[in-house]
Amino acid sequence: MKRLVLLGGGHAHLFVLEDLAHHPDENVEVSMVTPLPMLTYTGMLPGYVAGHYSLERCSIDLVRLAGKAHASFVQTLGVLINPDAKEVICADGTVLAYDVLSIDIGSRPAIAAKGVERNALVLRPLAKFVNGWMRLLAHAKDQGLGSVSVVGGGAGGVEIAFAIAHRLRRELDNHAPHVRVFSDSPQILPEFNEGVRQRAIHNAARYEIGLHAGSGVAEVGAGYVRLDNHLEFESGATLWAAGAGAPEIFAESGLATDEKGFLAIDENLQSTSHPGIFAAGDCASRVRNPLPKAGVFAVRAGPVLAANLRAALAGGPLTEFRTRRNYLALLSTGHKHAIGAYGPLGWEGNWAWNWKDRIDRRFVDRFTAT
Prior knowledge:
The structure is a single chain. This protein is an alpha/beta fold. The chain has ten helices and 25 strands. The protein has helices at 11-22, 45-50, 62-68, 116-119, 126-143, 155-172, 194-206, 249-252, 295-314, 350-369; strands at residues 2-7, 28-33, 38-40, 59-61, 71-74, 78-82, 87-90, 95-97, 100-103, 108-109, 121-122, 147-151, 178-182, 210-212, 217-221, 224-227, 232-234, 237-240, 244-245, 263-265, 277-279, 284-286, 329-333, 335-342, 345-349. The strands form eight sheets. A five-stranded parallel sheet has the order 5-2-1-9-21. Strands 11-18-12-13-14 form a five-stranded parallel sheet. Strand 24 and strand 25 form a beta hairpin. Helix 1 (11-22) runs parallel beside helix 3 and helix 1 (11-22) packs across helix 9 (295-314). The longest helix is centred in the C-terminal third of the chain and has 20 residues, at 295-314. It starts with a strand and ends with a helix.
């Protein structure tokens, strides 16, 4: 009996569980280790914050999916990997032996300012963010807020800022707080073309969202944000959506990493230092032809990961993960309107939001019905 351990409940592992459900292997014992029973789909998070979706509509039941895949569900956090003994050590004391290990644990917040853990609502982990957002919304309704600051000028931060501005205007009307975005990049949405950036700036003006590019945050305090240039802004609530940091488990476990600490993997999604360990999603970086930290690549990698795990368990040949760097991006702008981007192209409209809505619902429904 071979042992497969799936560490983490990320998007790529959804495809692995789906594959195991459709093609069970009685010679493989599967365990999934993740601290949460539900996966909140990141693509629908801005829509949840904006009030377009319930939390249930954005969620995938990992316990149910693991059951369909004939996998044991171990609800805890993996804290260390012993690659020599081929074991995963968990926070609750559980030790799981493996023949093949797959890791899809995402990234952790990249925090480079004082006071963030104490005074800011951090976007990841999503479950903690969701609880914090519910408290923030209740506070805004009961006691009001002067302003909301979002730190992070990439797609995640900008979308959340739009969603918050829309929701608070809908809930509080003229008493809605001012929303602003801080980015240490010279421009917001640095990963997109200039046309897309201008569309975002135009839409932000509709909500009177302040965009402060080239403004690195040095400290988040109780009721304020202080920038690197010592300017200080009042902030009734601060959300941290800046960057992706590497999970500490890889360096602490002696696995090869890239210069930022992400697990180093090859073209087959396998660890460059330890054969039999595979990874996908934001927690890993390909040594050759690295890809941006975007959820679309975890989704694209899912089927290849599933095939390579089967091959590794059977001693068969591995498949190279080949993908184009360009990808369709649809950025929601608060109300049911979105900006689209693909390479040098850009567009926007309510129809673009409907397109995004159909894609996101189809993705969640796929793994709800499995």
